[in-house]
Amino acid sequence: MTSTSERATHRRLAQAGPLSLRLGLLALVAIGILGAALELAFERHWESPTQMIPWATLALLGTGLVMLVLSDSPRTLAVVRVLALVVLLAAAYGIYVHVSVNYGAGTSDAEWSTLSPLTQWWYALTKTVGFAPPLAPGMLAQSALMLLLATLARKKQEAVLPGT
Question: Which residue, 66, 120, 129, 134, is the most exposed by fewest CB within 10 angstroms?
Answer without folding.
Answer: 66
